[in-house]
Design brief:
The chain is α+β, with helices and mostly antiparallel strands. Helices cover about 20% and strands about 20% of the residues. It has one domain (about 10-125). The strands form two sheets. It has a four-stranded antiparallel sheet, with no helix packed on it. Strands 1-2 form a two-stranded antiparallel sheet. This is Programmed cell death protein 2 C-terminal domain-containing protein.
Amino acid sequence: MQKHGKPDDTMQSWMDQFEADADNQCWAYFQERISRAPEQVLRYCRDPNVKPLWALSAGRPSNPDIPSCSYCKGPLCYEFQIMPQLLYYFGVRNEPNSLDWATIVVYTCQETCDQNISYKEEFAWVQLYPTSISRP
């Protein structure tokens, strides 16, 4: 596969194709990040400048997809995400038609409005794996 530290033509072609696919790049970065704490099932950060860790480049919400706060009409921001590793702890098997997600991202009011309400409706975005991607 390699001669003198350089990939052969077949390997280089495969590497170029892999790098050109945005989902593959995103998936590789996602895998690298979660390998630091593979048992992590929840990522929390209330900083409005922080973005979620997406498993894929496809299936992300655009700004118009994220609604305004239903109480104060202010912007919602990323607060936490539920990682797919939680499925392991639920005992979900990797079978067709089983429960599955790439990540679940929850957005909450940036202003933490109306403290008088105990439970508020928030917004969750579920990023699913495309059916054409096979994972181990």
